[in-house]
What we know:
Shape: elongated
Oligomer: single chain
Largest sheet: 5 strands, mixed
Bound molecules: adenosine-5'-diphosphate, magnesium ion
Amino acid sequence: MMVLKGQLHQHRIQSEASARANPMSSPEPEVNLEDTDRLEGRAALVNNVNAALALAGAVRSTLGPRGSDKMLVGEGGEVVVTNDGVTVLETAKVEHPTANLLISTSSAQDRLARDGTTTTVLLTAELLRNALELTRIGVHPSVIMNGYRIALDEALSQLAEISREAADKSESRAVIATALAGKIDTKLASVLTDMALDAAAALAQEEGGGDLERLRVKRLQVASGKASDSEIVHGLVIRKQRLDFTTPSASDGGVIALVDGGLENRELMLDAEIEVRSLGVLAGFHQRTREKLQTQVDHLASLGVELLCVRDGIADEAHVMLTAAGITVYRRFEREDLERLACLTGAAMVRDVGRMSASDVGEYSSRSEEKIENSWHLRIDGNRGAAMTALLRGTTPTMREEVSRAFDDALGVAHRLSAESSFLPGGGATQIHLARHLRAYAPSQKGREQLAIEGFADALEIIPRALAENAGLDPIDEILELSSAQSKNGPWIGLDVMSGDKTDMASAGIIDPLFVARQALTGATEAAITVLRIDDVLWAQVEPGTPDWNSEESEDEI
Ligand code: ADP
Ligand code: MG
């Protein structure tokens, strides 16, 4: 109860925010139900819905290729210009629990599908808006939750029904181009699409789930050259030079060892309390650590190691020993890079050199040092497994960040497409179809759930509406025309916001992956249900006709 009273105050702020964000919607009238418990329940829902609408209002104008950019200014004055919904949300500072739930839903969408984040937020907010409308006419939240679940199931099976399987690369290209539309110019989008397809093809045979494309592909931003000169290198490129310049800078292959630690004499560094009683003690100590290092170097040499990469440092005394043993050394690797090297070469990351065995070493196929933008980089190739580097170029940090984000989207989609290549019509066509289908389906369901299914159908139309709005078109006209066009020519008719045409989305090349749409619908419905459940708990406390005479007393105790 106490929490809710706090929220009531916040609600006023939020409803002002939402009124500003959605000038079309009328401000929430004061709630005046008789029953206090019920009042608090309703007020909580109103408050939560307004928070969701305010947040959706912040990203609504970024949807689609005609969406506008947002300029985000950080506390330190740093500026990000983006039209990427999830970037806007993750950068924004929000404290409202519902707003945070929406942000985590959109982050989950980003993690699972790498696209569709704005769509998810808009859908969630709209599902909540319609749920609130339904509670106003007396539909219980649990009935709405139930209806939403039924609608979701039906929508998901429709998605599968109308989706098509990508037959060749040109369709994958179109899916990625649709994901990048409006984020970056078309020429650059085409370069990034090629890079993404190239990298995804290399990963297609590898084990290891959705995040593989983040783990195995290193992003290296390069501050020179045109963005369209960005490229994929099948191998690892790391900004680094070898420890000893007398060792060879290049080789056509050899045995590599990876150390997940250092080659240092830790005893001397950590134990500063060696008691020196006679001159010989310190010398003896140095002698012992040298011997220990020599044993480790000899062990590496006996395994045939020619290239050594270590995560931490190398003791000064070891430099000479390693060079004498013909071992080229690179140090201070990021853990992720060492992991990528392990994939590339089949080497294991070993903590203790003394325990390294013959099966722990790997093989690389070539290495060299090259100068990129005035600094030396090590390049290692191998053919045991796939690991790559995306060289992302751009002259300004803002440009490089945008290129990097667009590449992330492209690769995320490309990688997931190789597991599931089905696609759906974009440009609002899928949502218009689902809305039409669900309205026809609703009467087959019992009682008031029908209303919730219709509410779900209405909520879906936020996507074509926002796409049309952002292109300066009249959303009501567009939705009506799309519906009637679909009734004649089927679910693939959508709105091309670049030309304003209502046309077949497959021939226009405006297509979205099935996995993005499926995740967006599921994530949005789950988030909306989570918010409704809070309300349901409060409603459940209401026992009509049995007033709680002790309520004042118990409130004081809380
Ligand atoms: P999200 O964060 O949800 O991915 P986007 O801003 O990337 O948001 O917009 C994605 C939406 O834009 C999808 O519904 C997609 O079908 C649509 N879209 C992409 N290109 C076009 C186009 N040329 N015409 C109409 N809609 C498009
Ligand atoms: Mg997108």
